[in-house]
Specification:
Layout (H helix, E strand, L loop, with lengths): L1 H16 L5 H28 L2 E3 L11 H19 L3 H26 L2 E3 L4 H23 L3 E5 L2 E5 L1
Antiparallel strand pairs: 1-2, 3-4
Helix pairs in contact: 1-3, 2-3, 2-5, 3-4, 4-5
Length: 162
């Protein structure tokens, strides 16, 4: 019963939080949230096939891709993270480093104890590295989507990448 409550909460509560967001920001960052949903869907399919990890689904048909995480918590969290950090790459990266670490090394063990997840062949640090790689990739996608130039500051000198 507790597991079902957690999974339903992960699916529903994040969507209600979007009622508190300005609709222009929601429309601006929804495409990147959809992209991360597609990427996560593909990663979860690979994880299922290669036995990297397994997570419980809410429905009988979502054993490969857990709907509450992919189509609830991850999608909406992406929108909120971009809402507060986009345009400040180092802040965005720091937020992702902290949140992904909290998920992977604090919450995921709790999920395992509750029977909601099972560690497979992929070590936690590799999953964490994948999460950070996805975060950088979707940030670059948002920059491209908005037509922004990518500026990288190295040693006090700015360089522009096109």
């Amino acid at each position: 019963m507790l597991n079902q409550l957690i999974l339903w909460s992960l699916l529903i509560i994040p969507w209600f939080s979007l009622l508190f967001m300005d609709t222009t920001k929601l429309r601006r960052f929804f495409p990147v949230a959809l992209l991360v949903t597609v990427i996560n869907t593909l990663f979860y399919q690979a994880a299922y096939h290669y036995r990297w990890w397994r997570e419980s689904g809410l429905f009988g048909w979502d054993n490969v891709i857990p709907v509450p995480w992919i189509y609830g918590a991850y999608l909406v969290a992406t929108i909120w993270i971009f809402r507060f950090t986009y345009g400040r790459f180092w802040l965005y990266l720091l937020v992702n480093v902290v949140l992904d670490a909290a998920y992977m090394f604090a919450w995921y063990p709790v999920q395992q104890r509750l029977g909601l997840a099972e560690q497979g062949n992929l070590p936690p640090w590799a999953s964490y590295a994948m999460m950070l790689g996805i975060a950088v990739a979707i940030y670059l996608f948002q920059k491209w989507l908005e037509g922004d130039e990518l500026e990288v500051q190295l040693g006090g000198r700015r360089k522009q990448a096109r």
